[in-house]
Amino acid sequence: MANIASAKKRARQAENNRAHNAALRSRLRTYIKKVILAVDSGDLTKAQEAFRQAVPIIDSSVNKGLIHRNKAARSKSRLNARVKALALQAAS
Predict the structure, then answer these.
(1) What are the entry keywords?
(2) Of 51, 61, 83, 84, which is least packed with CB atoms within 10 Å of its CB?
(3) Does some domain include residue 44?
């Protein structure tokens, strides 16, 4: 454990930041899972709505430094591909 006051403060801040980041990361994963579950259920409108809700959450995670922008782009691309595949499947 730290002995210097500033080190103690940084330890407290690090713990608070860790908890906050964990909550944000959990929210991110939840929204991504909602899209995947909606696609797997075969409900196109539900999947599209879930995707529309997930995109701003993914983008805000990048702005907060939670994930890298390339990971965000990859996640959005893969989710969108799933939704589009469902739309094509529903159309045919």
Answers:
(1) Ribonucleoprotein, Ribosomal protein, RNA-binding, rRNA-binding
(2) 84
(3) yes
The letter for the amino acid at 88 is L
In sequence order, the 6+-apart residues with CB closer than 8 A to the CB of 44 are: 83, 86, 87, 90
DSSP 33-78: HHHHHHHHHT-HHHHHHHHHHHHHHHHHHHHTTSS-HHHHHHHHHH
Which residues span the domain enclosing 35?
A: 28-91
**d(Cα 41, Cα 56) in Å, to the nearest integer?**
23
Contact 45, 58 (CB under 8 A): no
- Residue 71 has phi, psi (to 5 degrees) of -65, -40
Whether residue 73 is contained in a domain is answered as yes
Give Cα 90 to chain centroid, integer Å: 26
Q: How many domains does the chain have?
A: 1
Q: What type of residue sits at position 53?
A: Q
**This prediction's pTM:** 0.89
